[in-house]
Amino acid sequence: MMAKILRHWKGWLLLACYAVALILHCALGAASLFSQRALPIQELALDDFTQLESIQPRDDGHDFVTTNLDAQMIYRPEAPFRAASLTFEASFDRPIVEMVLYYTTEADAPFNERQKLWAKQDADGHWFFDLAGRSYTALRLDPDSIGGVLWDYERVTLNAPRPAARYFIPDARGWLVLLFAPLLAWGALGELLDVILSSLKKHKINKI
Amino acid sequence: MDMLLGLVPLAGFSLLGARLLKRPSALMPLVTVAVTMLWFTLLGTAGLLQVAGWVWYLAGAAALVLVLVWEKRAVLRLFSPGLIFFLAGSVFFIVLLYCTQPLLTHWDEFTFWGPAAKATTNAGELYTTAASNLIPRSYPPGLTVFSYALQFFGGTFAEYKLFAAYAILYLAAFATAAALPGKNKTGAVVLLGTFFLLPLLFETLLPAGQTSTSYIIGMSDPALAALFGGALCLYFGGGNKDARLLLPFGLVLAALTNIKDIGLALALLALLIAAADMFFCERDTLSFFRLKRWKGWLAACAVCLAMIVAIYLVWALHIGTALDVDRFDLGSSAQQRPMTALLGDWVRALFGIEVPQQYSVVNGLMWRALVSSDYPVWLLGPGIRVFIVILVVLVLAWLLCGTGRGRRRVVVFAVASAVGFLAFYLFNIFTYAFIFAEVEAYVLKDYNRYITPYWLGWLMASLVLLAANAGDAQREAALARTRTRSKVARVLLVGFAACVLFTTVYHGRFSSGVSNFLQKSPSLYTTRQDVQQLVTEAKAEGMQPGDTVYLINQDDDGTRFYMLGYELDARLAPVFGRAWGRDGQPLLNEDDSQKIQGKAAGKLVPTLEGYSALENPVVCTPDELAAYLRDTGCTHLLLDALDAYILESFGPLFTDGLETGWTPDGWNVGGQRYYRIEWQGDDCTFVPAAAPEGGAAP
Q: Would you say B318 and B274 are in contact if contact means Cβ atoms under 8 Å apart?
């Protein structure tokens, strides 16, 4: 049995690498589940936003209209805060192009292209941004990049509860890492074990 | 899912090829794909595309059975990591793309690549002759017929199948990585993983938005890269240089030529690199049928060259007879000059005898682009950085080579491929300077897309040369020094793969919500869905495939015009304009130097006041439009977006006066979309398409 395993150890090692990766992934998922569930659910009213840019109130049955391509809702509380997610509920009069969230992690830092997230839309039409439980100093929600869009604000929620399974299903980045990292670990470990095994063999031969 | 059937012939031919040619089975998917493309092209030009399909599937199944009967259980031996990578990866992409259903979104995918593939599949004949709204019909058909081959049993054309077919083509090229490390499976698998990630590193549409197009793109550039790199990997990884290797190599080069015109340049450069290697490193061992040494070298090069030239001429002949297009007539319609005259201009410019302004500007820009971050060719910036990586890989490969011949091979490759790059780059300068229109040339439009194929292929081939040391060099395996070297090479490959993975995952387009081949962004297809909705409405209002439709869109940059042309079964008439009739191009300005991608493509306006030269508004009165509709044989009118001018001046021509369903500034709010044109003498009226004949006259 041992001999058989040793003969095919490279195949087994590959499987082991994938198993370890899967366990690590689940552990990380569980860790973020517990740490992020602990964060308080916070509903943001419109007054909580420090600044609304290029967004004007209406009185024709819609709450707002965006007045150019670069409408912004900026949230900059006095103290830094930790957040797991941001959920945006609103209805628009046409399909929305490029809804994004900018963030800063240092006080008074300007918003920039590197610190930017794209929205995912849930089945119920809510827009969702994954903030990963890190600490932030400000958020800037850009509701649309068309301009002239009529829309109704419903609510913005920080740390809205999500089904536990969502923490364990990998996103695109997660899939790539899960698929390729074990392969690389296998490549590196394989070489290492090869060296150890061959030196062990030599040792035996010398003894005889 | 009918595409899975296509894997039967691909697997069958690959296994049979490996058995007959006695070469690593990892190389055979690429050869099979190349032969498939050539087979369908040849029979397609003879009008026998459907026959080609039946023969391909039946012969492929027969090949599979034959190999199974011959080899019995030993067939498992042929399933190398490379072949498994190709087959499993193909199944993965077919299933994945079936689930995610990605759509075409880019300009070029609607002006040529998408409609060409759609017309070919739906009509069962080449797009040169099939009925469609396709305007340029003379581009080579390699990719299109490959997509046709794999959706042969699918009935109607599906976009996800087009993406899947091209992904299968890339996988076939990447599978060649696994040939060189030979029996060492670790080296092979790590290199396969690296090659799979390379397209994600070389995003071809870098600045144009935040979506990743790798593995979900209908354009030809990644296929050029894959076949160029794949051909070189085939040559270097294929073992003894004899007819069993060099004929398949020539076939791959022919397939590369048949993808796009620039493919000819890439195929010739790949042949140059292989010829140099054969001459300096393999002259003593080379054999081509019974010819040896320099006679064999000459024969091998001549045969490969003949295959490239042959497929080029076959297509030239086909478009000459089917379309009356001269393939040797390069140049944009702005400077209709024969190719020889343009090449003459180029040579004069190269030697500084007579330097046109466009040439001197482009020349300066192109050399600056090599080092400037404004022209990135991959996620890590300008081309010079790819060059540095390639150089490091080649130096390592040289250091790790145990034998004199191995070292000579690396040096010869380095020199030949650098000369090849220089030639390729100069040729691209030529196209920008003499073929492109000024506005496009001065911004080096699509620079990364045109240059990346060489960079990517060059890097693939360099990695394979490094991997050559990663295998247990069979003859010298007993030497401890060789073993150490191959171990170092393998560790280096793992390190390189780790860098590629890190870069693509953390600097690439894989953060949350960004669209890529694994996840869709909801807003990506807004325009597509909108146009599809318009077609659905028009069909509900009575649009028939035999109609000739004139589109009124006062708010289009040309995107929606081409998208509609792609979606419609009906014929879409060119937009009204002074350019009508020239080349059949619908969106050209008078002097063609400003191809429309500005704001208003073919917008109907009362005067030119207030429009810049870059836009393409068309001064048009109702009478002129009526005359135009009669000239072009239009039967129907499709309203997409209107404006105040149309509502006011053209409204009276509509029997319903366009009074309901349109806002004063031309937004559709449930108004009628599709109208029939009725004639009374020279006057026309527009009647809702579903209304009874003649009954709705005012």
A: no
Interchain proximity B523–A188, CB inside 8 Å: no
pTM above 0.95, yes or no: no
Q: Does the beta-carbon distance from A118 to B490 stay under 8 Å?
A: no
In the numeric block, which tokens belong to residue A121? 């839309």
Q: For B520, list phi and psi in degrees, rounded to 5.
A: -105, 145
User: Which chain B residue has its CA at the smallest distance from A118's CA?
Assistant: B513
Spell out the domains of chain A, with CATH numbers in brackets. 37-161 (2.60.120.260), 164-192 (no CATH)
Q: Which of A96, A130, A186 sits opposite B512 (nearest CB)?
A: A130
ipTM: 0.77
pLDDT tens per residue across span A183-208: 888 888 887 777 777 777 766 655 55
For the packed helices B49-71 and B142-150, what is the interaxial angle rounded to 10 degrees?
60
| Contact check, Cβ <8 Å, A194/B530 | no
Token output for B81: 């990591």
Interface test with B, best of A122, A131, A134, A180 (most B CBs within 10 A): A180
- Taking contacts as CB-CB distances below 8 angstroms, the residues of chain B near A121 are 522
Q: Which two tokens stand for residue A48?
A: 């909580």
Task: Name the nearest CA neighbour of B300 among B347, B343, B248.
Answer: B248
Q: What is the DSSP string of A98-159?
A: --EEEEESSTTPPP-TTSEEE-EE-TTS-EEEEEEEEEESEEEEE--SSSS-EEEEEEEEES
- Judging contacts by C-beta atoms under 8 Å, the chain B residues touching residue A98 are 523
Q: Taking a C-beta distance cutoff of 8 angstroms, is the pair B64, B15 a contact?
A: yes
In degrees, to the nearest 5, what angle opens at C-alpha B188 toward C-alphas B183 and B192? 155
In this structure, are residues B523 and A99 in contact, taking their beta carbons and an 8 Å threshold? yes
Helix, strand, coil % over all residues of chain A, rounded to 5: 40, 30, 35
Nearest chain B Cα distance for residue A201, angstroms: 15
